[in-house]
Amino acid sequence: MEKLVLIGIGTGNPDHLTLQAIKAMRGADLILIPQKGPDKSDLAGLRHAMLAEHAADVPVAVFDMPKRDVSGGYLAGVDAWHDAIAAAWVAAIATVQDGRGFSRDIRTVALLVWGDPSLYDSTLRIASRLKPAPVVTVVPGVTSMQVLTAGHAIPVNEVGAPFTVTTGRQLRDHGWPAGVDTLVVMLDGECSFGSVQPAGVHIWWGAYVGMAEQVLAEGPLAEMATTIPPLRERLRAEHGWIMDIYVLRRKG
Predict the structure, then answer these.
(1) Cα distance between residue 199 and residue 221, in whole Å
(2) Residue 103: predicted pLDDT
(3) In which pathway does it act (predicted)?
(4) Alpha-carbon radius of gyration of the chain
(5) Whole-angstrom distance, CA of residue 205 vs CA of residue 216
(6) Which of 9, 134, 191, 242 could join 236 via S-S bond, C-beta 3.0 to 4.6 A?
(7) What is the model's pLDDT at position 183?
(8) Cβ atoms 121, 115 nearer than 8 A
């Protein structure tokens, strides 16, 4: 592998693929697709569907996504997990080379990255662990933040004002960041908005944004803090998995 192309594919809507993304798919010698177990087979299925429509002739290698060890410290667990994912990439490429006999032709390998590789995604960090290091190219994709605000038809910032993109863990552990009145919260599996003083705060929430299963909800946090958690659990039970994101805004 001489070149690794990380292709942002948006949040599950095939219409969010850019022309640049489609060209990058077609230009790859091999595309890697992760499997995350039967509960998340929808995610692999969407990737396969995109390739079937736009790059059906490009070989595909599927690999099992390693699970993160949550028994120890968070950062140590993430570090070991990233090592394991990089090793899984290498093993998948080697399997194709050995099984199909065209190892000299696999020079450009692509990964289809959910959303965009720059926003709360670790693919670039994992790629930095590969030895020898390939040339890494990034094709930007539509982010869940953009799809959420489009779905609610709201701007992410107020006039001339900053906003902060953060995680549920940070919101729970450190509270509302100083100096901003608008937060975009990602990677929150515990409804951390429940830790926020709700007075004067509005929430715009979405699950499966951009996908056919998309569900949106919004309103005063004082009301929605009790409405969203049971809705979220019902959706998780129906689909076997959930990805959600929300914007919080308080009166300045």
Answers:
(1) 8
(2) 46
(3) Cofactor biosynthesis; adenosylcobalamin biosynthesis
(4) 20
(5) 6
(6) 242
(7) 98
(8) yes
* Residue 126 phi, psi dihedral angles, 5° rounding: -65, -40
Tokens for 13, please give them.
């809507």
Pair (27, 70) in one structural domain: yes
CA distance 52 to 243: 24
Name the DSSP letter for residue 134. Answer: P
Indicate whether 88 and 47 sit together in one domain: yes
The pTM score is 0.87
Which residues are CB-contacts of 82 (< 8 A; sequence separation ≥ 6)? 122, 125, 126, 129
**pLDDT tops 60 at residue 104:** no
For residue 136, the surrounding DSSP H or E stretch is strand 135-139
Q: For residue 148, give the amino acid letter.
A: L
CA–CA separation, 146 and 106 (whole Å):
34
**94 — pLDDT class (breaks 50, 70, 90):** confident
Spatial separation of the C-alpha atoms in residues 154 and 149, rounded to whole Å: 5
Residue whose token pair is 């949550």: 70
What is the dihedral sign for C-alpha 123, 144, 11, 221? positive
* One domain for residues 89 and 136: yes
Residue the block writes with tokens 């949040």: 11
